[in-house]
Amino acid sequence: MEKIRFTIDGKAVTGSNGQTILEVALENNIDIPYLCYHPRLSKSGACRICLVRINGKMLKPSCYEQIAEGIDVVTEDADIIKLRKFILELLLSEGDHNCLYCDANGACDLQVLIKRYDVDPAEIDLGVRRDRLVDYVSSPALKRNENRCILCGRCVRACKEVQVSNVWGIAERGSHSHLVADDDMAIGESSCVKCGTCVQLCPTGALSYQTVLGRGVNWELKKESSICIYCGVGCKIDYYTNKQGLLVKALGNEDGPNKGHLCIKGRFGFDFLQNPKRLSKPLIKKDGAFVEAEWDEALDLVANRLGAIKGEHGPDSIAALSSAKCTNEENYLVQKFMRAVVGTNNVDHCARL
Ligand code: SF4
Ligand code: SF4
Ligand code: SF4
């Protein structure tokens, strides 16, 4: 494909036909701030934070503007900074942004830009502010506080384009515009399937998760990437633990094959890991009651019993049922063990049941 050559902040860059200025800038580690854009979603050009100057004259939203041969792009100058500050002030003036009380504090794209452009929420004239919907109870998965919503539309596009559930929409016009679930229902009573994708892609604290167990300040959380244990799709997940080591949050890994998307089980079903009733040692039934045992003792017992059953009734009297929660390698070993050691083809798997 023919390459298009142009400059961003004096640096020579190349892109392909159809790419936007922002896409090429991101590929070249050139920082242009944005709020409504997300690489996994269609473009809307709604927030105008990513305005750049082209050929010393026009200001254009870089998330929408396609590249062209020879253009000269400037990502920031005094006028652009002034405009970005003004846009941020407008966004803040319509909401209630006390970061200390917000779930997104420390993990909020808006907060990052407020600091970067030195905008003080306390100094914003709140004359136009209307109280908007706050719903922390109707859904067991999601919390919604529209006083922190900047109407970027990312949740609308996430639900439509990634989850394909089409729950969110924006109703009314101008300063009356607001988010609606289905035909203006409480999110917990709507057709939401609780995948949590809209929360992950919301750039503010307008949407947040219910399952932040034990809490923890966002910047103190430790991230570990892993694989979801619920089914054979094996989505890549980023788990977050707080200072006490408690698992508090699961986000889809944006670089994984699932591209950040998770279902309700992977996103919210992780609390069993830290349930005190979870078995962490094998149990052996002795005199009618289960007693904790060491692994060697338990494995010896299973080996002896399998050997005895096979000797008395033959290999086909034994069957193994494996699990989609295991890795491919573990499932391979189960069938290998049954065929090569026990001598039976009686192997099945919960994904087929
Ligand atoms: S949404 Fe962001 S800017 Fe607004 S209160 Fe929450 S953390 Fe602060
Ligand atoms: S949780 Fe999933 S289904 Fe529910 S509104 Fe958000 S994206 Fe849509
Ligand atoms: S809820 Fe979040 S993602 Fe949705 S429009 Fe508001 S700020 Fe944007």
What does this 3D model show about the protein?
The protein is α+β, with helices and mostly antiparallel strands. Among the domains are: 3-76, Ubiquitin-like (UB roll); 220-271, ADC-like domains (N-terminal domain of TfIIb); 279-310, no CATH class; 314-353, no CATH class. 24% of the residues lie in helices and 20% in strands. The chain is built from eight helices and 17 strands. The strands form six sheets. It has a five-stranded mixed beta sheet with strand order 2-1-5-3-4, covered by helices on one side. A three-stranded antiparallel beta sheet has the order 6-7-10. The longest helix is centred in the C-terminal third of the chain and has 19 residues, at 295-313. It starts with a strand and ends with a strand. The mean pLDDT is 93. Residues 97-99, 102, 104-105, 108, 110-111, 114, 148, 204-205 line the site of one iron/sulfur cluster.
Residue stretches low in confidence (pLDDT < 50, at least 5 long) are none
CATH architecture term of the domain at 3-76: Roll
CATH topology assignment of the domain at 3-76: Ubiquitin-like (UB roll)
Strand order of the largest sheet: 2-1-5-3-4
Name the bound molecules: iron/sulfur cluster
* Major β-sheet annotation: 5 strands, mixed
Radius of gyration computed on alpha carbons: 27 Å
Tertiary shape: elongated
Question: Roughly what fraction of the amino acids lie in strands?
Answer: 15-25%
Q: Report the CATH C-level class of the domain at 3-76.
A: Alpha Beta
Number of strands: 17
Strand pairing plus helix content: what structural class? alpha+beta
Helical content stands at 10-25%
Order of helices and strands: EEHEEEHHEEHEEHEEEEHEEHEHE
First and last CA, distance:
48 Å
